[in-house]
Each structure stands twice: as C-alpha cells, then as structure tokens.
Amino acid sequence: MTKKNLFGLTLAELEKEISPLPKFRAKQIAANIYKHGIKNFEAMNDLPKNLRAELSERYEIRIAEVLKRLDSSDGLTKKFLLGLSDGKAVEIVLMNHDYGNSVCISSQVGCQMGCRFCASTLKGLERNLTAAEMLGEIFFAEEFLRGRNQKLDSVVIMGTGEPLMNYDELIKMLRLLHEDYCLGMSYRKITVSTCGIVPAIKKLRDEKIPVTLSISLHAPNDNLRSALMPINFAFDLKNLLAAAEDYAQASGRRVTYEYILLGGVNDTAEHARSLAKILGGQLANVNLIPFNPVAERNFVPPTKASVKKFFHFLNTHGITATVRKEMGADVNAACGQLRAKL
Fold first, then answer.
1. Which of 164, 173, 178, 314 has the CB geometry, 3.0–4.6 Å to 319, for a possible disulfide?
2. What string of DSSP letters covers 111-136?
C-alpha cells in the first residue's frame, strides 16, 4: 500500500485526514511534524502507542532528499540539489549574511519564461512544485541550520521557476509557513520574485499577505526589455510598474526591482537615466546585480567602473539602489545560474 505523505498538509487538512479522531490529535501531529521536525511516528511520544502504529501503517512524513551539495570557497554559500518523489530535482541556495541566514528556493522544476540571460530556463518547464515540495525546501534548510545551532531568518522565492505562474500552490505554502503551528515565519521575512505577471501581482495584492515583492526588471524601456525578457510582450513596463506601485501602496512594503547589469547591453549612463525616470516617485528600491556568467549565454559582466557609475547615478537622482554582494558564483549558485544540476 502506498503511504500518504502528511508533510505539507494544513491543520484543517490533517483534521480531515485523520477523522474521526479528535481535532487535538491533528494539532499534536502538526506540532511534531513542523515544530519538532519529527519524521517517525514512533517518536511522537505524546500520541498513544496504538495510534502511532496505525499512523505508521498508513502515512509517512517525507521532505526533499539531498542528492548533492557544494560549498562556496568563502563558506558563506551552500548549494543543494534536492531530489523529489518523482525523480525530479531542484536546487536551493543557503546564504549566510551579516543579518542572518537566508534560503533561496525554487517554485518550479525548470522555467518557461525564456529570459535570455538565465540558466534556469534553458530546458523549459517540466512541472510546478506543490506547496509541500516548496515547504520541504525550506524545512531542509531549517533543519540543516538547526543541526548547527543556527536558525533560518528569511526565505527568498527566487530560485528556478516563476513563482506567480504557480500561484495557488505558492499562496498555500506562504500561508502554511506563516502559521504558528508551522514555522510561524513573518510575511515580512519572505520575498516573492516575479518577472512581471501583472494579473498575478494584482491577485497577490488582494491576498493581504505583506511579503516583499521583487520584480525582475533588467531594462528601462520596452524595446530592450522585450529583447531580454519575452514576458514583456504580454505585460509591458507601463502596466507592470502600475501593478507594482499598487502593490506597494496596498501592502506598505517597498517593491524591490532586480536589475542585472549586462556589460554593454543595459549598463550605460543613458540606461541609468531612463531607469531613474521611470521609477521616480515609486515606493521602491533597485538591487543592481552584475551579471553572473552562464556558459550558454553570450553576455559578459559589466566593468566595475560602469557598476559604480550606474549605482552613483541612481542614488543621486532619487532612487535608492544597492549592489548585490556576489555570493556562490564559484559554485554556480548566484542569481541566474541555477539549473537543477551540480
């Protein structure tokens, strides 16, 4: 008999699954799974022995299995290839910042968005991840850190895939992650990235869950953005920026615009001037990311001088900008390099 996996079920789903047992049993099981990280029913000592045996026969508790691991030379970044139940695999990246530990997780196996500079989309989309699988990525990171007397401080959904193209499972995972009986993570410690799915940004606004919205922008005009990111043909900059501003006003959270600097492509003074113009007055900041090399992509990193000039121009023209610290490039764990392969 195939055992059903209880990991990833909400409390309400657990109550329904074990009915007609009393609801407090579901609370106990949820606490054991999520709060205490127990994967063996026999170790749930607050449950009667006969119930533990019955649960063991019918159910299992399974999260992602680590297949491979790479550590950056500075020890601050770890990349894991995690195996899923159907044989597929995804990458996560665990990063140690001066403000705490963050994990970057994937939302899909592969990606269909076709951004010209990204490795994650090279083989297209294979399938969406379930809420349980996304939560499993986070719990893998949390358990890894707990074993080293550390804690997980924030979650970034910016790995392989377009999170807002897996909307329902994403929202289920976010709500479960936030529940007190799960990790109880503040929405303000969660960042959701998107290349610009405007209708889904509007839906996310109406969910009233104030996660940080991170938009992959990468160009200050429609012609260049369409050449780099096919999604711009469907949702142009005018509509994207309007949706982002609506989200910022509704949530009270600054939108982060990710801008990968591609040498000689989008990193000139004119590009900086155009970017400052279209973002002027928005509740937003810009995260500048020098391009991380991808073998199959014919782009080159910007010069240090062009990065410095771009950064300086934005910050002296009313746009708060930062330059992302490169982390994990030596193990292909930096932005745009994930491809479910180590």
1. 314
2. --S--TT-STTTT-EEEEPPHHHHHH
Task: Give the number of domains in the chain.
Answer: 2
Q: Encode pLDDT of 100-120 as tens digits.
A: 999 999 999 999 999 999 888
For 4, the token pair is: 């059903």
| CA distance readout (Å), 132 to 14, 107, 148 | 13, 11, 24
Q: Give the amino acid at 327.
A: M
pLDDT at 340: 47
Residues 12, 148, single domain; the answer is no
Q: Where are the alpha helices (DSSP H) in 85-235?
A: 131-146, 167-178, 198-207, 222-228
- Residue span of the structural domain in which 176 resides: 65-331
- CA 248 distance to own-chain centroid: 19
pTM comes to 0.92
Residues 98 and 158 in one domain: yes
User: What is d(CA 103, CA 157) in angstroms, rounded to the nearest whole number?
Assistant: 8
Cα end-to-end distance, the chain, whole Å: 34
| Within-domain flag for 339 | no
90: which strand partners?
82
- Do 116 and 249 fall into the same domain? yes
CATH classification at residue 34: 1.10.150.530
Catalytically active residues, by annotation? 91, 335
Residue 193 CB neighbour total at 10 angstroms:
22
Query: In this structure, what CATH number is given to the domain that contains residue 223?
Result: 3.20.20.70
CA distance readout (Å), 108 to 127, 134, 160, 172 = 6, 9, 6, 15
Low-confidence stretches of the chain (pLDDT < 50) are: 333, 336, 338, 340, 342
